[in-house]
Amino acid sequence: SSSNLLLAINGASMTNKRKRRPAGTPDPDAEVLSLSPRTLVESDRYVCEICNQGFQRDQNLQMHRRRHKVPWKLLKREKKDEEVRKRVYVCPEPSCLHHDPCHALGDLVGIKKHFRRKHSVHKQWVCERCSKGYAVQSDYKAHLKTCGLRGHSCDCGRVFSRVESFIEHQDTCTIR
């Protein structure tokens, strides 16, 4: 019957769908990597495997690789003679949630930003208006767009662009 045919078609398409793993379940096929804290804060972290030239951004490395005229996937297969595995990155800080492979981050840029935001004491970019420091440049640039706008000023000298942050600060501020 037509309903059985529809069921068979729907059933066939359901078997081809890739099921998502529940949150907190590691990918059993992924290679879990743990990089050193020093590696995560280095600026030239993206290094060409052919000529060892370093780059600050992954996109720049990708453009550079094209000059060698060797497909990247081919390079990886020649080295290991096996299928390229997905890589996930764990945080080197043992007390961190992302230290557990169940909560690993899926790309190098993500783990670098996470480590700098949460564990780095070096704040390379400092706002001239409010003196707040940032370890990730994109966070600093986002901050600059709102810093000083619709300012809520505390008597201690701090200025908040969000009223929620201002109220929260006032609860703990000793200078009022």
From TrEMBL:
<keyword id="KW-0238">DNA-binding</keyword>
<dbReference type="InterPro" id="IPR013087">
    <property type="entry name" value="Znf_C2H2_type"/>
</dbReference>
<keyword id="KW-0862">Zinc</keyword>
<dbReference type="GO" id="GO:0005634">
    <property type="term" value="C:nucleus"/>
</dbReference>
<protein>
    <submittedName>
        <fullName>Protein indeterminate-domain 14</fullName>
    </submittedName>
</protein>
<feature type="region of interest" description="Disordered">
    <location>
        <begin position="1"/>
        <end position="32"/>
    </location>
</feature>
<dbReference type="Pfam" id="PF22996">
    <property type="entry name" value="C2H2-2nd_BIRD-IDD"/>
</dbReference>
<dbReference type="GO" id="GO:0008270">
    <property type="term" value="F:zinc ion binding"/>
</dbReference>
<dbReference type="InterPro" id="IPR055186">
    <property type="entry name" value="C2H2-2nd_BIRD-IDD"/>
</dbReference>
<dbReference type="InterPro" id="IPR031140">
    <property type="entry name" value="IDD1-16"/>
</dbReference>
<dbReference type="GO" id="GO:0003677">
    <property type="term" value="F:DNA binding"/>
</dbReference>
<dbReference type="InterPro" id="IPR036236">
    <property type="entry name" value="Znf_C2H2_sf"/>
</dbReference>
<dbReference type="GO" id="GO:0003700">
    <property type="term" value="F:DNA-binding transcription factor activity"/>
</dbReference>
<dbReference type="InterPro" id="IPR055187">
    <property type="entry name" value="C2CH-3rd_BIRD-IDD"/>
</dbReference>
<keyword id="KW-0863">Zinc-finger</keyword>
<keyword id="KW-0805">Transcription regulation</keyword>
<feature type="domain" description="C2H2-type">
    <location>
        <begin position="46"/>
        <end position="68"/>
    </location>
</feature>
<keyword id="KW-0677">Repeat</keyword>
<keyword id="KW-0804">Transcription</keyword>
<dbReference type="Pfam" id="PF00096">
    <property type="entry name" value="zf-C2H2"/>
</dbReference>
<dbReference type="Pfam" id="PF22995">
    <property type="entry name" value="C2CH-3rd_BIRD-IDD"/>
</dbReference>
<keyword id="KW-0479">Metal-binding</keyword>
